[in-house]
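Late entry, evening session. Most of the bench is empty. Finally got around to the prediction I had been postponing all week. Sequence below, unchanged from the version circulated by S.P.
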Amino acid sequence: MTALPIRFVLVDTSHPGNIGAVARAMKNMGLAELVLVNPREFPHPEATARASGADDVLASARVVATLAEAISDCGLVLATTARMREQHFRVLEARQAAERIVSEARAGAGAVAVVFGTERFGLSNEHLLMAHALLRIPANPEYESLNIAMAAQLIAYEIRMAQHDVGSAVPPREVPLATPTQMEQFYTHLQQVMNEVDFRDRTASGANLIGRIRRLFNRAEVDANEVNILRGILTAVQKRRRKAGDEH
């Protein structure tokens, strides 16, 4: 089975043994690309011991400082969550998410990232805002707590099974999804224009506007051409305002 560009990203992992266990789970299911964001201890003998033969996955793992760096060249990004639902986010259960992961990876739309948070607290809201959708494992609602390696094994298994489903293949994308780097550039540009035209959050809380905008565009899954169009509109607004200012 040909390896697909599917990346598991572990954020702020506290226990090196969990890194090794995730590497083992990945190799069991034919996955090889592991990226570690700011791990507390790595490399570490316990990681190697828990990898139990998946030393090659550990050896090729990349260590980076931020989640933005880990996913900068990706297309689809899914963030794992243990919560039943997150307001304003699209939530995919593991089997549905695996089908989407395989489809996007086969479509040549760039690497697909599955992001896992810390053992105790999961992913922060800031991290969630970098994902197109959230991925949830439908466990017993009375006891949903899963070790990160268990979660990785279940998701990797669903991805493996989805690869056997010929119906999940989709034609190559004409235009890839905008990368997280391109989207961050767009959000920075948008914030600049909003400040220039004095567009602010008028709701009672007045603190969630950018978060809502990010979730909106994440759900829309903007492609590279579309984000260029949006930035072109913003640039046109800026030029028009400057011209109007010169006339006065």
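Two things to note before I forget:
The two ends are 66 Å apart (CA to CA).
The chain has two domains: 6-168, 180-247.
Will write this up properly tomorrow.
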